[in-house]
Design goal:
Blueprint (H helix, E strand, L loop, with lengths): L7 E7 L2 H14 L6 E7 L4 H11 L5 E2 L9 H19 L3 E5 L3 H12 L3 E5 L14 H11 L2 E4 L2 H9 L7 E3 L3 H9 L20 E6 L8 H16 L3 E7 L3 H11 L5 E5 L3 H10 L2 E4 L2 H10 L3 E3 L7 H6 L2 E3 L4 H13 L1 H7 L11 H12 L14
Parallel strand pairs: 1-2, 1-4, 2-3, 4-5, 5-6, 6-7, 8-9, 8-11, 9-10, 11-12, 12-13
Length: 389
Amino acid sequence: MRFVMNKIKIALIFGTRPETIKMFPIISEIKKYPHFIDCRIIVSGQHREMLDQMLGIFQINPDYDLDIMEQGQSLSNITNHSLLGIEKILKKERPSIVLVQGDTTTTFTGALAAFYQKIRIGHIEAGLRTNNKYYPFPEEVNRHLTSVLTDLHFAPTRQSYENLLSEGVKSEDIFISGNTVIDALFLMVKENYIFRETSLKDKKIFKKKIILVTMHRRENWGEPLRKTCRAINKIIDKHSDVSVIFPLHKNPEIRRNVKEILQNRKNILLLDTLDYDDMINLMSKSYIILTDSGGIQEEAPSLGKPVLVLRDETERPEAVESGVVKLIGTDEERIFSEIDLVLNSREKYMEMSKSINPYGDGKASERIVKKILYNFNLIDQSPDEFKAK
């Protein structure tokens, strides 16, 4: 591959823990091209504490931090503050292209601010859809709106590619890259990992079958969360060889509901939000994962872990189709019966624990950065032949 001398400036915009995880491999890849790329990192601070945690783990030093998070912030506040803050920075820096990731409000406002300045936009993890604008909320609409503004769509899978085509996006503007979350995963999982979380240092915990639970989606706040907790209690009562580990989201409403039902129960460990590397390595040691997280739906198949998803719809259907992820909703009896089935049936467990991942092979970031370099005429060989399958 021959390089053509020139230089571009790339601005990466993100503001939450998941975005940071998925942007980290991109940042690492960009650092390989210092003679061709100037990089500016802009964080909104949409999720302050969890964002800072990830920045520290990955040793990312932002060039700009808007620090917009406020107690009880509304979506309108996040939108307003991030849009105005990003606009000022883009006017000053004038990057060649802005990269945004996923489906947060920061993603949408970053793309909108770039559009207003007539700056090209690259959307990482483009094309995920449920086609229900209120599920997940507000992420589904954020993705649609970002796609309308985007110039270069980095679709993680063939299904995402097809979704964008069906909405009128030109095929030449879509590149199937795989998902950068798998790149991050492969960088962080270690065979002899030592946990920082004190409660996980005791190896006796892992002598039982671990059910790892996470819940944070807005649509699951309140009664859906309470139903899930009641189902977990029933599982613990029936299966003495099972332990539940539940890292709690920072949201006080989530924490209150979970603690009311699960606190002080034998074989249930409630933790604060874990650092990313602790979380990934805990996933690798778990038996079953119960979650409403989109990111975990992408990560767990690479670890060969059955995933039961506490949602009725998903914008990530590929893993469901492959049989390693199953949508089970938030009905109490359904949750109990689905977990019970996987625990009781070795055949069912093996069927769902195949190490198959439709979301990537760990090379998405390399593909994305090379595609950008090619589009700006900095390399003269198209990376299209290296597209993810």
